[in-house]
Design a protein that fits this description.
single chain, 151 residues, mainly alpha, 0% strand
Length: 151
């Protein structure tokens, strides 16, 4: 009987700790994603996002993405993936476009922070940075060519 009570107590403690950690993770993500999502929504309402999209559009068309997606890439490169996800959530993208963006950002994200880490590891930070950007862009181009128009 004692073992059963011990297992229940252990399960209850584990459950309580899991819920606590889950809420902490949610709060941490919300601190990043909330403001970015609101910022993107404001840019959209003020039509500033449309203005920015015009500048990104000539470059983004090679990846099969609208100009607005350039902001997601810049955010992912400069801030982190969660900021980029918040930008993507504020846009109206197809599954195909989200797939291309997700793969590109999975390869090259948080460039400032991760380049600093590479530097501390005594590697060649500029080489690694350029490789990540190049591979990300090349993969985006390739995915645009091979993914079907409708996913």
């Amino acid at each position: 009987m004692n073992k059963t009570l011990a297992r229940r107590a252990s399960f209850t403690e584990s459950l309580r700790e899991g819920v606590r950690q889950g809420f902490y993770s949610f709060y941490t993500l919300l601190k990043v994603m909330g403001p970015v999502y609101i910022f993107i929504s404001v840019l959209k309402k003020l039509e500033i996002l449309d203005w920015l999209a015009v500048y990104f559009a000539p470059f983004m068309k090679y990846f099969g993405l609208p100009g607005e997606a350039g902001l997601a890439i810049i955010t992912g490169w400069a801030i982190n993936l969660y900021g980029a996800i918040a930008v993507i959530a504020g846009l109206s993208l197809s599954a195909r476009q989200v797939t291309i963006l997700a793969v590109m950002l999975g390869i090259s994200h948080s460039l400032f922070m991760e380049t600093a880490i590479v530097r501390r590891m005594k590697a060649r930070p500029w080489l690694v940075l350029l490789q990540r950007i190049f591979i990300s862009l090349a993969t985006g181009l390739l995915l645009n060519l091979i993914l079907p128009a409708k996913i």
